[in-house]
Amino acid sequence: MAKRVFRPYDPDRPLPLPPDLRQWLPADHAVYLLSDLVDHLDLSPITAAYDQGDGGGNPPYHPVLLTKLLFYAYCQGVVSSRVIAAKTDEDIAFRVLTVDQHPDFRTISDFRERHLAALLPLFREVVRLAGRLGLVTLEHLAQDGSKVLANASKHRAMSYARMAQAEERLSREIGVLVEAARTADAAEDATYGPDRTGDELPVELRGEIARRERRLATIRAAKEALEREAREEAAAIRAADAAERERRAEAGEPKKPGRPPAPPEVPRDDAQRTFTDPDSRIMKNADKAFVQAYNGQIAVDAAQQIIVGCALTNQGADAPHLAPLVEQVRETTEGTPREWSGDAGDFSAPNLEVLEAAGIEGFIPPDRQRHGDQPVPDGVARLLTAAGVASPAAPPGEEPAETAIKAEMRAKLGTARGRAAYAQRKQTVEPVFGQIEERRGLRRFLLRGRPKVSGEWTLWCLTQNLRKMMQALRAQPGLRERLALV
Hints:
Layout: H1 30-39, H2 44-47, H3 63-75, H4 81-90, H5 92-97, H6 105-114, H7 119-132, E1 140-149, E2 157-159, H8 160-192, H9 203-251, E3 272-274, E4 281-284, E5 290-301, E6 306-313, H10 322-333, E7 339-341, H11 349-358, E8 361-363, H12 378-386, H13 400-414, H14 416-426, H15 430-439, H16 450-475, H17 477-485
Parallel strand pairs: 1-7, 7-8
Antiparallel strand pairs: 1-5, 2-3, 4-5, 5-6
């Protein structure tokens, strides 16, 4: 039997590579498509920061290079600045994108943090570019939210009641330690003479006092923040009630029953705040677990799953985010969606009024749908009602107007058109969250503080859109010609 012959394999043989980096990858590689897309964006909010230089030191890396590098890395689910820096040496696509330049991880990290504020305008730029390419139709938009872990642990949180106890305890401990330090100073003065100034503290006590003072200052700051939030929430409740009473009086409607509310202006004992990222909150996620998180909201266009609106808040409820998202979508796209769908968490009479005022038809169920359930057809609902299996009764205290609005929405979703419209939601917004969290790996935010985390969330949504646009450019060759004409 003849000996099997293998292809030559000599690791020590020099490997000739094309001198042009652009020949190292296929012509339709994602890195080229992303580069072309970014070239069509207005990066002046970023480049303007470099207009004034000090004339010293080495020239900085070009901001367009760093922008493309950051965007491509996030598209691939690579978010660590150290890993991104290593990719410019180890990954051909990253190396081609940076034209064989290798910014260090600190440069990448500082660039990301410095330009977080410029990401929202760039998000709008990307959405509008997608619209010009015909990837956004505004026929149907679906909204949803997801609880994303904060860069903090809920075990580093403390309740308002425990803060008061800890504040009292630390104050007593500091007093005891300071008195002990003074006693020790007096004893040393008697032993060694009065040359000491009297301000020194024994080393073993100095560290303990400083540690407790830092802890006390942190607790007091968190306690004051909770108290401020409680006062602001109470003021908002009173203002909303006063506005509703005034509206009814001007409209000639019956007075709102009951006395004006008098909400407490102090936090509940179980109100909590974490010390590592005070802006984050404990929220219940989809698995019914309580986690330290932020609420990431998106509105997605059904045509190509382009995110046309995004927001990041520390409020667990979804309903308050609909109105700001509608306003953002109309401003970003310079158009008005025809339909808008959400889940039961987005349902409220004010939200339906917002959609109606904007000329948008809403499809939002008032009742939480079990997974796999569909709205009941109108005829089926009548049969069930006649048989005594009626729709859920109105909760105690719910006004008749609210009950009527829910019944109207249930009937609307029970029609063939309503079921078809609401069915689009599951194939529009839920896959996008799956792609961001499962495929690209968003499990926990890197940054802390709501302003920074909001910029990070915008970066994830922006690059999600770039991925969708790259897929469309690859699948539809005619789009590349249209992009060249934009």
